[in-house]
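question for whoever is on the cluster today: can someone run the full assembly for these? four chains, 264 residues total. i dont have access anymore since they changed the login thing
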Amino acid sequence: MTAVIDDERLDAAFTALADPTRRAIVARLARGDATVTELAAPFAMSMPGISKHLRVLERSGLVTRSRHAQFRPCHLEREPLDEALGWIEEARRVWRERFDKLDAHLRELQRTDHTDRTTTTTDHADQKEATE
Amino acid sequence: MTAVIDDERLDAAFTALADPTRRAIVARLARGDATVTELAAPFAMSMPGISKHLRVLERSGLVTRSRHAQFRPCHLEREPLDEALGWIEEARRVWRERFDKLDAHLRELQRTDHTDRTTTTTDHADQKEATE
DNA sequence: AGGTTAAATAACCAAGTGGTTTAGTAAACG
DNA sequence: CGTTTACTAAACCACTTGGTTATTTAACCT
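^ ran it for u. tokens below:
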């Protein structure tokens, strides 16, 4: 239904996580909110550099910023993390389901020697699967 | 120890997942191996375009390719998926742990009105947490 | 008012991405 | 053998990314 929107959200989340600096920032924020200078401290990078990374994180919804005097404390949001996690889990679920099904099928073949090809789908693809 | 290498692997995995076409390919491969033309079919994109995406997926270790005559059947590997999942899970674990700890702390404060600030860490950051 | 601190913006750069078309390779097929 | 099939490689394009320095904004503190 909202496939395109979901796509955009996932794009942003995975893009945000695809950089070691940003992952380190996320990991740091998981332990508690922090200001931009606090976040920048561990890195050999200029402040605007960190600022740019934070904008990417903010655009993905992973990080939100509020204002407190001249500070802009950063806060890690949970939902985008959950969405990314959910996508991977679903892909893995499908993968494992197929694997289990194949495994059961092979076991069945071994028990009663039917040698039927009615359950195959993509021809040579399945042929490859049977050899692994 | 192998932090940099892990970084590179995670970079590649998240980068690979940060594109809707590549995610669709991964989702398709979760259901079973497929050739490049089979993978390209659902998309309004030239074959070399798909080929490039597959190279990104291959570089990340998410996809491996074997040879079968002139076909190059693609196969989804589980490990990089697990690594990406593991990283997110760990971040979320830390996030929730802190949340639970804060929650317990607030409950404790409410029970016995100590009003002690000895357990705070990053000053205004925690102050912000208390207001959410 | 003037100075300091926190952070964002602007302008710039090299390198990478995502797509194309055109051309090439390698194996099967008739 | 030549042709088709499946795919990769090369060259090119507009656009984005990740980084820099230099400049501004905004709020606080004398």
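summary bc i know u wont read the tokens: Chain A touches chain B through 47 residues (CB under 8 Å). The first helix of chain A runs from residue 3 to 17.
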